[in-house]
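Incident log, structure service

09:12 report received: a user says their structure output differs between two submissions of the same chain.
09:20 pulled the input from the user's history:
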Amino acid sequence: MNVCRSFIGSNRASNGRLKVLQYHLQNVSHARPTSMLNFRPGGYSNTNVTFMNMRASSTGTVLDLLVNHLPQEEVEVTYPLTVKEAFSFIEDVLKLPNPQSLLREDRHAFLNLLAKQMNYAVPFSNIVLVGKPFGQRVAPSLEECKEEVVACRGGSCFIINTFNKILLDLLGYKTRFTTGKNPYHKVMGTHTGLVVQDLRYSGSEDLLEVGTRRPLFEAIPLDFGEESPEYAFGHVVSKFFRSEDGLVHWCKELDRNTKAQEAVIERGNKRWEVQLIYDLDLTVPLSLMVACHGLIWPNADIVPEVHGDAVVSGYSGKQFVVIKGKQVSVVREDFSKENYTAESKEHLINIYQKYFPQFSVAMVERAIENTISKW
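09:34 re-ran on a clean worker, output below:
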């Protein structure tokens, strides 16, 4: 078992800049809007857009919710994963033979291989959540979170990235949680991010993401300046930008013919759509992540898109498949694309069984019944 203990107001960063989110929340007296458009030349293309970070909510409602309900004393949290179970998952589920040998030979290469296999095996999904009616939706227990990952049904970024953090800790890596959000959420904290420390050298930090809707097959070095190199994984080309306030923006390259989006960064002749925004100065203990997920994931006011259409996004073999409501998108291994609409409930169930058979027919039926009212 992996036991994680958090302390109110503790500062685990040697440079004094990292804060425990719990301490940060306790000291927020009010919420104020802050523009995140203060990039150096070539920033967001739509300068009328104002995003909000944790220190900047338009209403303060979410902050009040978190401050009033998060644990206010030392909390001990046990994640139900053992070393034996970790290696069994790597060998039996991720299909990586002899992980101990690979780990000894090259820890960095093994980490990237593990991340790639996690991307292929575990999708982002909300099927279990929306399979329950409104009013009955609650965040799963840590035992249930583990079961969803091991069964390759995945779930939220919290479910997947928390499992991955504990797995890596058991393998001897040094990791920490950080926090983020998508660009349209009002407050920071709706995304669970993971940073691997001391991987390339003492003090280095690398972002590792296996719990999102887009492929990122390797640990991304965070010691870049204003811009990272470009990374091509699967059908997505990613790039990271650091704004003057220190927030890091994960972006994907847009086709030049794609209709302009609000959260777009332009550099030269390329356009980059913001996918996630990180406040890497914040270190979040497991107990606080559990508490935040318990409040945020079931709350349709905070993450309304999660409570809308039933969604599964991830790999089926070598194809990247997104099922959202009745809409189906398939990106084949040669990057050719196919988009179509399910014609009936039975058709949609068959599509799920074709691409994501790890979700039982009963699970899919419940999700469809709660999210699609007519055909």
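09:41 both user submissions now match this output. Likely a transient worker issue. Closing.
09:42 reviewer note: The chain is about 30% helix and 25% strand. Confidence is low (pLDDT under 50) at residues 3-63.
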